[in-house]
Design goal:
The protein is of the alpha+beta class. It is built from six helices and nine strands; from the N terminus they run βαββααββαβαβαββ. It is globular, with a radius of gyration of 19 Å.
């Protein structure tokens, strides 16, 4: 079954977020193609139009929303990837991002970093925060598009993190500071703490941080894109 979603927005963030929100929750086997451009209407305002086409895999199992084992597995029980696989996925993600930049007539260079468990693709020299959006919402939408495209192409969990102008690194630093505060609160009161929604890379970093503290445990709760980490007494 295939499905095409068209969306408009006064900004790239609004258009992308509206389109992606229609596709989220429809399984991980989604192949995505994106085309778009900015148009000036008779009022002089610029609007963005995007078209997202998705083809779903009807045989793909979807874990129940209230299954904590399945929710946690997606964060901390992922099979390791070889450097060759990470390099392959990073190249495919770079092709996707180059097409997106061209379609939106945006400047920017791509920088790839390979880590032991994931690859990082950063767009630099864009000249604005257009790919980031308000509170990173545009970047989150782009991350979801890339994830769906890679998983459809390679038939495995995607391990490429998309960043723009160092936004993810700055956000990660702040999230870990908040996680430290939550850890202290749980140790002091014994009451569980719920953190804000995070992507899979951020959740994994928080899980690793909590694992270093005796007497505490962490688990994931919710469905993308609203999945969050709960820190509680072990």
């Amino acid at each position: 079954m295939s499905r095409t979603v068209k969306a408009r927005g006064a900004s790239l963030e609004q258009a992308l977020t509206a389109a992606v929100s229609e596709l989220l929750g429809r399984g991980s086997g989604i192949g995505v193609q994106l085309s778009g451009d900015a148009h000036e209407d008779w009022t002089g305002s610029v609007r963005f139009e995007v078209e997202v086409a998705a083809e779903e895999d009807p045989d793909e199992p979807v874990a129940p929303a209230d299954d904590p084992v399945e929710e946690q597995r997606a964060d901390v029980d992922v099979e390791p990837a070889s450097l060759e696989e990470l390099d392959e996925e990073a190249d495919a993600a770079a092709d996707f991002m180059e097409g997106l930049l061209d379609a939106l007539d945006l400047p920017g260079d791509l920088r790839i970093k390979l880590h032991p468990d994931h690859a990082e693709l950063e767009v630099i020299d864009v000249g604005s925060g257009v790919l980031i959006g308000r509170r990173g919402q545009t970047l989150d939408a782009i991350q979801e598009l890339v994830r769906c495209s890679l998983q459809r192409q390679f038939q495995r969990r995607a391990r490429v993190k998309i960043d723009a102008e160092g936004y993810r690194a700055r956000r990660m630093e702040k999230l870990l500071e908040k996680a430290d505060e939550a850890i202290d609160a749980v140790l002091d009161t014994g009451e569980a703490e719920r953190l804000e929604p995070m992507d899979v890379f951020e959740r994994k970093a928080v899980h690793q941080l909590v694992a270093e503290v005796d007497g505490l445990a962490s688990r994931s709760q919710g469905r993308e894109p609203a999945r969050r980490v709960i820190i509680e007494s072990d």
